[in-house]
Design a protein that fits this description.
The protein is an alpha/beta fold. The protein has 18 helices and 12 strands. It has helices spanning 7-22, 34-53, 64-108, 127-144, 157-170, 188-202, 223-233, 252-273, 290-293, 296-304, 321-331, 354-378, 381-384, 386-411, 419-438, 449-468, 478-481, 490-517, and strands spanning 116-121, 148-154, 176-182, 209-214, 217-219, 237-249, 285-289, 306-309, 313-316, 335-349, 474-476, 482-484. The chain has an 8-stranded mixed sheet with strand order 3-2-1-4-7-6-10-5, with helices on both faces. It has a two-stranded antiparallel sheet with strand order 8-9. Helix 14 packs across helix 16 (449-468). The longest helix has 45 residues, at 64-108. One of its GO terms (molecular function) is alginate synthase activity. The chain crosses the membrane at residues 37-56, 62-83, 451-469, 499-518. It is found in: Cell membrane.
């Protein structure tokens, strides 16, 4: 839905939405209303009927080799999915309950961090969102009694005035100091670096805790207690990230897509946490022990992280500060974890084309992943941990394997047009079965998820293939609509033309290889 037009209406609607999410998430069959059961029963009945009554040509002699490849890739990809699902269940049922019990015992015994530093960046945020964010922070500081300094990086007086007015009205009794730092250089990275330097000047102990968060992340119930207590129970823990829910004002399908993405994130994060690592320390909300992040090298990594590339030369990263913090701690063998019962609510406002925003997000996320993934892989499995290292390698393999099946299905139209019907049935059936597992990590089942999941996978893989050849191209609509990698100088044009040549020839080679395999094209001969 679109955001209400007036500030009062927006605040009232947002409060209601937050209240509806703050209660415990339904579990098991409580998620399944009769209407949802009927929807999925109808879908499954149609799929089974199609499999039974539509003539099966999966195993025709001239098509069996195509089915073999698609089936082998499917078994591999789904096997990898279920590996994550099993690890996630072990974490949720066995490991995390023990972690929570130890953390609760430490907290109830009176342990508190020596000092808590909350660093938050905000940039012309919607006033209603800013007030809810600050209110959630002040309420938990008041209740927990932790010595706290709130460091807020801003770009102008706009956000400062909103926060100051709110704190004077609602936070006069809270024992916390609020420090505004107005950045004098563009970009979120520079804002974070400026805050970290200010924290260093103010004096910070190695066991102080520092929260990294965004200006649109509202704390859920007991977030400070649930996250900070983990550090008291585990002196080796250096960083953690939390669960997230999404509130989206925009097209309904974007809300469904983001909800599905966050469900995938919960499953994956719990699986990764079995290795005492995660694949990103999410910028929306992550907590760090100050031991590493007060290091000058860490701060410079945030401010000026870059990559040296044979084609693009040295270029700096615009977004992806969460990947930079993660890579730095990963290189230090730091222990990290995920806290599924501490939730923050991300508030998104989508204006204009929802599809455009989706592709833009994929370009940003995929670019950040690819830029950091290569150097994380270079650390080796002994530093990154074998499972996490293979997850990084698999991300680079999967972007191509995900495109094999749709490419084969389309090419097979020239051999047996009806084969694609079986492919479509298999796509919907397999994604429906995957979503039945994914609903374990969602507040409610959604009949659109099997279809959104497949298109999400195809678009994501396509964007990654594009981005692997255009690593320097960056665009971030937030914080001043920054962009990079699109220069108009002659050298820039040559570099872009070279990258496009690589992309086109790689894709053509990929398609020709598949066409030769299915005997749509003859195998070239030398004689």
């Amino acid at each position: 839905m679109d955001a209400p037009k007036t500030v009062y209406a927006f605040e009232k609607h947002l409060d209601g939405w937050l209240r509806s999410l703050s209660g415990p998430s339904p579990t098991g069959f409580d998620k399944w209303s009769p209407h949802r059961i009927a929807q999925f029963a109808t879908l499954l009945a149609l799929l089974i009927a199609a499999l039974v009554f539509w003539p099966n040509n999966f195993f025709e002699p001239n098509l069996i080799h195509i089915t073999f490849v698609m089936g082998s890739l499917g078994i591999w990809r789904f096997g990898w999915w279920f590996t994550h699902a099993i690890r996630a269940e072990i974490f949720a049922r066995s490991r995390f309950p023990k972690m929570r019990t130890r953390a609760n015992a430490v907290w109830q015994a009176g342990w508190r961090p020596p000092h808590l530093h909350i660093q938050m960046t905000t940039y012309f945020e919607e006033p209603a969102i800013t007030r809810r964010v600050i209110g959630s922070i002040l309420g938990q500081i008041r209740r927990e009694g932790i010595p706290t300094t709130l460091w807020i990086g801003t770009g102008s007086s706009y956000d400062e005035e909103i926060i100051t007015d709110f704190v004077r009205t609602h936070g006069a009794d809270v024992d916390a100091e609020i420090v505004f730092l107005r950045q004098n250089q563009p970009g979120k990275r520079m804002a974070i670096g400026m805050i970290l330097r200010a924290i260093n000047r103010a004096g910070v102990g190695p066991d102080d805790l520092v929260i990294f968060m965004d200006g649109d992340a509202v704390y859920g119930i007991d977030v400070l207690e649930k996250t900070c207590s983990m550090f008291g129970a585990d002196t080796d823990l250096q960083a953690l990230t939390t669960n997230e829910e999404v509130i989206c004002y925009g097209p309904q399908w974007i809300q469904s897509w983001l909800s599905m993405r966050f469900a995938q994130r919960r499953l994956a994060m719990q699986s990764h946490a079995m290795s005492h690592k995660v694949l990103t320390l999410t910028g929306r909300m992550s907590v760090f022990r100050a031991r590493y992040i007060i290091d000058e090298k860490f701060i410079r990594t945030i401010e000026a992280d870059h990559l040296d590339h044979w084609l693009w030369g040295r270029f700096r990263f615009l977004s992806g500060d969460d990947k930079s913090t993660w890579y730095y701690l990963l290189s230090k063998h730091a222990k990290m974890t995920y806290v599924p019962d501490a939730c923050v609510y991300t508030i998104e406002q989508i204006e204009g084309s929802g599809t455009g925003r989706m592709v833009q997000n994929f370009r940003r996320w995929s670019g950040n992943m690819l830029r950091n993934g290569s150097r994380a892989i270079a650390l080796g499995p002994f530093v990154a941990k074998p499972f996490i290292w293979w997850c990084l390698v698999d991300q680079r393999i999967a972007m191509w394997t995900m495109l094999v099946s749709p490419a084969l299905a389309i090419l097979t139209l020239f051999i047996e047009p009806l084969y694609i019907v079986h492919c479509l049935i298999w796509i919907v059936l397999s994604r429906t079965l995957l979503c039945l597992f994914l609903f374990r990590y969602a507040r409610a089942p959604d009949i659109t998820w099997p279809f959104i999941l497949y298109f999400n996978q195809i678009i994501n893989a396509s964007v990654k293939v594009y981005m692997i050849f255009h690593l320097s191209k960056q665009k971030w609509a937030n914080r001043g609509n920054q962009s990079a990698g699109g220069g108009t100088a002659t050298l820039d044009k040559i570099k872009n033309a070279t990258a496009m040549f690589q992309l086109v020839t790689s894709v053509i080679g990929f398609l020709i290889g598949l066409a030769v395999y299915i005997e749509l094209l003859p195998l070239p001969t030398l004689f």
